[in-house]
Write a structure and sequence with these properties.
The protein is of the alpha+beta class and 241 residues long. It has helices at 40-47, 91-96, 157-164, 220-223, 234-240, and strands spanning 6-7, 25-26, 58-67, 70-77, 80-89, 102-106, 115-118, 122-126, 140-143, 146-149, 196-198, 203-206, 227-228. It is built from 5 helices and 13 strands. Strand 3 (58-67) and strand 4 form a beta hairpin.
């Protein structure tokens, strides 16, 4: 059974963005929001106060697959590629959990309060039908009453409308990369600290200033400082412990 829970996040004043405050933080990885479509003007407000706002046209991403599940992700702005995120073996999992798995890393410095993308994926079920989903699926996030699987590609707006009666995520509505955010791990039960969150509309926000930038040439202890984490919440771990 999929467990859902939502809590209010208390954040410092310097993290206030967009409409003057953060909305409820996503807690756990499956959370509940009120039904509504994310409209372009709301997403534009979401980006206000972020260092990423500019007059540049940044509507696409470039993904470079390097083999073995390793990926580099770039923003494309006015024809220029900006290093953004990377998927590599998680140093946190290796060192502190003695496990193997992938993690999400910063390919550039991200400021505290900066939105770095949106959790996207295939719409798989209405919230009331979430219990029918397999407990082994650990990439699920509920947005506006619909469960999204971040490990699967997003349907087209026409397919979303046909299958769920709503366009939950239209790529034209938001300019930031949305792929691979599901690869970020939870630093729970490790000496590391979560440095980001995913809010109830799926936007990933930095709660700490991550200065380190991942490089394949850098030593592991340096790259460890660039790994991104967010809390999945207690209910998630109750189900997926």
């Amino acid at each position: 059974m999929v467990v859902a829970e939502a809590v209010t996040l208390e954040v410092p004043a310097n993290l206030a963005v967009a409409e003057g405050k953060l909305q409820q933080a996503q807690q756990p990885r499956i959370a509940i929001t009120s039904p509504r479509r994310i409209l372009p003007n709301r997403v534009a407000k979401r980006m206000q106060g972020s260092l990423l706002v500019s007059t540049a046209v940044c509507v696409t991403i470039a993904v470079v697959c390097l083999g073995n599940g390793d990926v580099n992700i770039y923003r494309v702005c006015d024809g220029k590629c900006i290093p953004w995120l990377a998927v590599r073996d998680s140093l946190m999992m290796q060192k502190h959990l003695q496990q193997k798995g992938k993690g999400l890393y910063a390919l550039r410095s991200f400021k505290q309060g900066e939105y770095i993308g949106r959790y996207t994926g295939r719409l798989v079920a209405h919230e009331q039908d979430a219990a029918s989903l397999s407990n082994s699926s650990n990439k699920l996030l509920t947005m506006s009453g619909i469960v999204v699987d971040g490990a699967q590609p997003l349907q087209s707006p026409a397919e979303q409308l046909a299958d769920f009666g709503v366009v939950l995520q239209d790529p034209k509505d938001w300019p930031h990369p949305g792929m691979y955010h599901f690869m970020a791990n939870d630093a729970r039960n490790t000496p590391m600290e979560n440095n980001s969150l995913v809010d109830l509309e799926g936007f990933m926000l930095m709660t700490e200033h991550v200065k380190a930038v991942y490089s394949d040439e850098a030593p592991p202890h340096k790259n460890a400082e660039s790994e991104l984490f967010w809390s999945y919440g207690d209910a998630y771990w109750t189900v997926h412990a």
